[in-house]
Amino acid sequence: MKKKETDIKSRDIRIIRIYFLVLIGGMGAANPFLNLYMSRQHFSGAEIGLVISIGSVIGLFAAPLWTRIHMESRYPIKMLSVSLIMSGIATVLFGYQTAFLGMAVFYCLRTLFNAGHFTTADMLALRAIDGTRVGYGSIRLWGSLGWSVVVLLTGWMNGKFSIRSGFFLYAAMNLIAVFVLTQLSPQNRSASAPVNAGVSRYFSGIVDLFRNPALSGFGLMTIITAIGNLGVLNYETIYLDKLGASDSIIGVACMVSAVVEVPMMLISDKMIRRFGPIKVIRTSLFVYSAVRLVVLLFPSVTTVILMRALGGIAFSLLTIGQVVFMNMTLHSEKAGTALVIFTITIPTLINILLTPLFGSIYDNLGAGWLYLISMSGYLLGALIYNRYYQKHPVFKN
Description:
Helix content is 84%, strand content 0%. By secondary structure, it is mostly helical. Helix 4 runs antiparallel to helix 5 (100-114), helix 6 (117-129) runs antiparallel to helix 15 (332-365) and helix 13 packs antiparallel against helix 14 (301-329).
């Protein structure tokens, strides 16, 4: 690689790190508090689940659309910038809704515009580090750093002013993210080669991915763990509120995992180089199972916070492991589509079908059942995942 190209690569990697810091940091200002806001408008768990399900329907179709735009549009960064701005506006307006219809409408609009933000960020990162020795974890850790700082600030702001404060902060962070994107080199601001993959063809590609022997075990594990973890994912902040945690404490709870993720992202890179992504992913699932079991046995605000810190280890291992696994298994263009399917489409389908059910479980049986189901899902996913790759020696690490 020529020196000029190396310099451009190095500069783009620095910019992508800042982008992750701002983008995921901004998510920390809003994402942990959306369901809490609905709960404080006296929505039941089932009603919150219904809003999430409706939004998930939108996200199901929006995610592949934004991915296709990013790969095929002549101006992908401009389109991404529009989506960031519109997502910020929709989030602020969501914070002024009190009726079910208004809440659902602006939740859906928010989902429509932000459905592809995670995946397009991953695609930008993988393109920037292609041909270098830079690990994905060294980029992703900046997102965790941004989240840990912003979510703690948001918890304080929400307690000091109102829960809408974080929604305004989210919009402001998205504007900063737009500016950061403009600093990328022309190579990283242009689209990939056209892949001729419309939304309908994208959904038919889901079946093809599950026919791939290298991915079918991963896909089965994704389905099982996504079902199991759905309740805790959507209702844990509400559970903390019911346990008596203040907004500032909820901010701390949402922050501790990200603090742990900062060093763990780099450690995950090293673990993957030494052990391979399959063993790293498998380890993360067993750690998640242990985290859910401890909260189930010793429910309290302190326990949830401590286990969220331990969950940061599992999250780092799983996040870095799955991105590296996809990038090693598929070509870069297909890896982007596969990431959308496994990290967005499958969880979104499960959201659509089961979130109201988990809301009813929370309303009628309590949060303990959500942790029991989550623990069982991670444990079963780990056992099936382990057994699957033992039967396919070519994928052993």
